[in-house]
Amino acid sequence: MMIPQILSLFLLSTSFNSTAALESSTPRAVSPFFSQHNEIQTNELKRMMETNKDLILVDARKRKNDDGYRIGNARLVPPDAPPTHIRAALPSKSSTIVVYCASAKCPASVNLARRLISMGYEDVHVYKAGIKGWVNAGNKMNKI
Fold this sequence. Notes:
- The protein is built from 5 helices and 6 strands; from the N terminus they run ααβββαβαβαβ.
- With 144 residues, the chain is of the alpha/beta class.
């Protein structure tokens, strides 16, 4: 029973490394699983926004779901964006990046975060509660 699981992990890891090789000039090994330690809660996002002036917020919703409202000064980068769009929107791979989408049920933020990590971005966090969690906590959205 362990051998099929190990084989699955190897195949997943290999496919992620192939993606990294295609999208980054310096590919790096990436775990196929997204660690929980990169998920942040509302209070932590608020603190990061107040204390880190270089923080980059990324709205991972697809363009068709974009209503023009953002948390802070977030940039819209859909999870299926071409690598050239991602590199243009996020030029520094060492910046602190927080990715969010509509709500905890929306997979776009985790999918984009995995992709960013596979492209070599070093400090990626996911605000999984998303816009719904932000607004439900009494915070305001910005109209762009």
